[in-house]
């Protein structure tokens, strides 16, 4: 191979090496610049973190404040409802309880009781009138329930004539279902009313009405016994009801 060819190839290799050297230098420069940029970026990120940290904490505080405000507004809405509960429940309370559907009336009294307890904790002059109205409705409502207690009790306490039944097992007793209703109503009245104890009042009412029932029943039985005794005397006496004692005597003999 000619010498000129070797010279040419050596020149090409030197040119390529020079190009590679320059390229490496440029890459080194780019690497240094990139490294510098990354360092600067890292420093700025750290600075940004220090700047954002107080903002983040402030945002957390704002979030808590917002949640507290939302909760406070919800509580205020509930309190405002308590101010209006007397107006909302007045018609139901004044109408009185429905014997066949007592639950709505009890729910109405429960709402009044909840409102009374809530407003009692508020030392606000604006709540005084609402408390007064609620207290009056509670008095009326509980009074109506007390009257219902008396009504249910009297329905089965009108007195009976024992002589009208051949066997003692036939004599009617106080209905179990009504007795359960009376017990439920008495328990409810004591739980709801924290000013007046209904225990003694309802016990006295029950004792009075049932005593009258017993007295009336025994009075009829006593009259029958007296008629039986008079019918076996020497001279038959006319009965105060206008019919012959002899016929009543035969009936009394059958009952005995």
Task: Write up this protein.
The chain has helices at residues 3-95, 103-120, 128-155, 176-192, 198-231, 245-255. The protein is mostly helical. Helix 1 packs across helix 3 (128-155). The radius of gyration is 49 Å and the shape is rod-shaped.
Number of H/I helices: 6
What is the string of helix and strand elements? HHHHHH
Structural class assignment: mainly alpha
What are the low-pLDDT stretches, counting only 5+ consecutive residues below 50?
Answer: 239-256
Fraction in helix: over 70%
Largest sheet: none
Average pLDDT over all residues: 79
Strand content: under 5%
Shape: rod-shaped
Alpha carbon gyration radius: 49 Å
C-alpha end-to-end distance: 159 Å
Count of DSSP strands: 0
Features:
single chain, about 260 residues
In short:
The protein is mostly helical.
